[in-house]
Amino acid sequence: MPATIIGIMSGSSLDGLDIAQCHFDEANGVLHWDIINATTISFPDYLLSALKNAPTVNGFDLMQLDADFGKFIGIEIKKWCSQSNVKADYIASHGHTVFHEPAKGFTTQIGSGAHIAFATGIDTITSFRNADVAAGGQGAPFAPIADKALFPGYNGYLNLGGIANITLHTHDDRWHAWDIGPCNQALNVLAQLAGKPFDEDGNMASIGKINHAIVNTLVEMFPYKNGNPFGLSNAVVQSTWISYLKASKDNPNDLLASTSEAISILLLKHISPLTDKGGKILISGGGVHNLHLMQRLTSLAKDQDITFDIPARRIIDFKECLLMAYLGYLTMQGKPYGISDVTGATTDTIGGALFKALR
After folding, report:
1. DSSP alpha helices (H): ranges in 195-249?
2. Taking the model in full, what pTM does it have?
3. How many whole angstroms from its chain centre is CA 322?
4. What DSSP letter does each residue of 120-178 carry, written as one string?
5. Which residue segments constitute the domains of the chain, with CATH numbers given?
6. Half-sphere exposure of 182 toward its Cβ, with a 13 Å CA cutoff?
7. What's the pLDDT tens digit per position in 40-49?
């Protein structure tokens, strides 16, 4: 059954609210899809600060932020729909991750679905990770189900978001997927120390000097684990790379150069043991716009005969929104996500909590 779904993503790098109007239809067992319209909405300063500090506030204030963020999302979606003549059957919102502790049996994404549904008048699906965590999984990554269905023909799919993650078809003819390590989160923090919101095109890193001791330390913090399921939380990123980098006496340009090198080396240390020579990997996420990072990654990958295919800009920027919309599409059809093999859950689950809008 065809459906038009607005996918919403608030990533760990906190560079804005990504929104995409996506359409799905199936004919003769073939899935057809399109990103019809898309935009990114910047966070106002008060909300950006609140989201950054969300893991440190008390329970009352966290619930207040959950409601406030949901209201913000709902109001912005309604405004966008009106201005751009956007219509949708459902909204699928990931929310902003505050806690992700699958080993302890819980994950927390804020951005109240009830408030989004009320503000927009559109049925809203949220809480996509919880069912997998309840079944003993990592609640991540989700990308495999969408990657294989929406972008067939690749050996793997790499996302360079706040955290880098990979979906990979391996030597044993299986699909593996896991979070590799920090990416844009760390780079943005370093740029902000120098008074910039982010390192545009990687220009600051490109003039920095690599400190190989820093590179080695960063890489060693996230060792390769044979492609086993692994979901990385923002809290771990903060307590490892970001804490270490903030304590360094090196200047920001050198730290950006060193961190970009560490990201590139770390990615290949995780990818190369499980992919065949000549592997072709689709790469997306905001990190693709970092020209210096991409230059280092592709240069190092040549030695291992791995190539990266960069898709159209709209897919680079809004692939995660497309993913959320597709998960919403599956949820409303009552279809499991089929990711237990990569998350470590005991069974495939149907995630998503539906909030009905008033008509």
Report:
1. 203-206, 212-220, 234-237, 243-246
2. 0.80
3. 11
4. HSS-EEE--SHHHHHTTS-----HHHHHHHHS-S-SEEEEESSEEEEEEE-TTS-EEEE
5. 3-139+317-355 (3.30.420.40), 152-310 (3.30.420.40)
6. 28
7. 999 999 999 9
